[in-house]
Inverse folding.
């Protein structure tokens, strides 16, 4: 069996950074080099102040603090790290293509291809190359073809090892994974990778499949999870129309052990770097294999998600007498979920853009997202004009003079806000739009706020109608 002494990971992002930190923490005898072409990102990973790590994840700073400098290294010297490594993880970004064939659906593999070429050029001896990024099915074939064209006495094996961590709980997910999936045919390479995880993951949780099953499992897992969210969000709209409560429906169906209670929380739609991208990949794949009906089935999961975001923006406008022009609206939460500073595909983008388009003045609060990221996501710098946005470091400041509070991320702090104090500084009639279903509605109502909560219908109105 190949003994792994040195690992290199290309890509120090939300997946590569935390994953390699946990591997280094759990395997003190393995030297782990995480490399990235982004100098600012690497400098942040090396910052003495662990609060400045580029990725915010509960528990991450402690793990990095223990391993960094011992056997965990962050650097921009990609080629040297490849040359030292027995095992190279590819953990670079694979966004959806914006132009050319498959634009809007297929993944842009240019970074993966570049990495494969770099590995082909700089690796020494026998190297196991592990796909970590979410990739379209059969990408390993491409990587293998590139590696195979430049052997010069070296040898390569490609494995697929998709990452299932969720942001916000990444460290717990990595330390106690439901399963680790390893795809590939080469028994020695599979065992080498399994022995790395085997230091802390029970053997029965390490699953082996062929390469394509592994790649397809990742897309399918994300598509299933996203489909659960679109399903419950579609039912939320029906609850609002009929006087039911989606939380009650979720609890009732979730206690059926065949359905299960997780991932049934209605909200403003899913965000994050994976769900949309992976479903679109699946759709592209189905169309490629002429499975049009299957493609349309999965495409509808994305349609419901977009619709939910548009629906929420529209109902805010309609409750505020049909116009928000010049009105101050406090947006609470910009990250795509709590406990992360990541805003990729966050529902806040589409909802805020729609409200800005209507001329609203947004006062945006988020405990972890920085204003530069918001500016880049919204495509405009902050401004105090109609149709502009400003960042507010405190909720109370965001609420001052606002006609509405709109909760878009389920940060814990938003569950226990002082509604009476906020209501006092708002302009009345003042609204609370709770798109995450976390606020104490009774307390908000008692403070004089009008309230809308996702998936909560009013039975009396329906009966009266
Ligand atoms: C997801 C998968 O969970 C993970 O396994 C994969 O590796 C990457 O993609 P992530 O996107 O980080 O992880 O977070 P996740 O917890 O899955 O949430 C995704 C989105 O769905 C968030 O916007 C979240 O707010 C939303 N969501 C989740 C709901 O709206 N309701 C739910 O019940 C659960
Ligand atoms: P993910 O959520 O999949 O981790 P990120 O965008 O957070 O995605 O991280 C991917 C990282 O990969 C980025 O920091 C990017 O700079 C890095 N990257 C892209 N191409 C290369 C490359 N050729 N070599 C090293 N790092 C790369």
């Amino acid at each position: 069996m190949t003994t792994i002494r040195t690992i290199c990971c290309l890509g120090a992002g939300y997946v590569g950074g935390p994953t390699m930190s946990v591997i280094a923490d759990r395997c003190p005898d393995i030297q782990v080099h995480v490399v990235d072409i982004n100098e600012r990102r690497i400098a942040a990973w090396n910052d003495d102040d662990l609060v400045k790590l580029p990725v915010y994840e509960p528990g991450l700073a402690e793990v990095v603090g223990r391993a960094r400098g011992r056997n965990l290294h962050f650097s921009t010297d990609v080629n040297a790290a490849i040359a030292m490594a027995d095992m190279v993880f590819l953990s670079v970004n694979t966004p959806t293509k914006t132009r050319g064939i498959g634009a809007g659906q297929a993944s842009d593999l240019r970074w993966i291809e570049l990495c494969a070429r770099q590995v082909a050029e700089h690796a020494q001896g026998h190297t196991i190359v592990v796909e970590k990024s979410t990739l379209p099915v059969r990408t390993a074939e491409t990587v293998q073809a590139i590696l195979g064209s430049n052997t010069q006495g070296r040898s390569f094996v490609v494995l697929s090892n998709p990452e299932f961590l969720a942001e916000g709980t990444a460290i717990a997910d990595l330390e106690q994974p439901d399963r680790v999936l390893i795809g590939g045919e080469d028994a020695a390479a599979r065992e080498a990778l399994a022995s790395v995880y085997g230091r802390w993951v029970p053997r029965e949780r390490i699953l082996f499949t062929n390469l394509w099953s592994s790649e397809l499992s990742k897309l399918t897992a994300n598509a299933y999870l996203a489909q659960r969210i679109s399903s419950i969000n579609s039912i939320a709209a029906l609850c609002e129309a009929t006087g039911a409560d989606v939380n009650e429906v979720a609890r009732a169906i979730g206690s059926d052990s065949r359905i299960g209670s997780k991932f049934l929380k209605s909200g403003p739609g899913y965000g994050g770097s994976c769900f949309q991208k992976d479903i679109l990949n699946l759709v592209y794949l189905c169309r490629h294999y002429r499975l049009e009906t299957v493609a349309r089935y999965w495409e509808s999961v994305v349609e419901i998600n977009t619709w939910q975001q548009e629906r929420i923006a529209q109902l805010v406008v309609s409750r505020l007498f049909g116009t928000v022009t010049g009105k101050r609206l406090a947006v609470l939460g910009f990250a795509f979920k709590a406990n992360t500073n990541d805003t990729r595909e966050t529902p806040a983008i589409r909802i805020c853009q729609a409200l800005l388009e209507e001329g609203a003045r947004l006062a945006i609060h988020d405990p972890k997202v920085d204003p530069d990221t918001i500016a880049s996501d919204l495509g405009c710098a902050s401004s105090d004009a109609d149709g502009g946005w400003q960042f507010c470091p405190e909720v109370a400041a965001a609420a001052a003079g606002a006609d509405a509070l709109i909760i878009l991320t389920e940060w814990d702090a938003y569950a226990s806000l002082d509604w009476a104090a906020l209501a006092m500084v708002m302009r009345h009639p003042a609204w609370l739009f709770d798109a995450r279903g976390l606020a104490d509605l009774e307390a908000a109502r008692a403070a004089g706020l009008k309230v809308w909560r996702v998936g909560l219908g009013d039975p009396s109105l329906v009966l009266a109608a």
Notes: DSSP finds 18 helices and 14 strands in the chain. The longest helix spans residues 211-242.
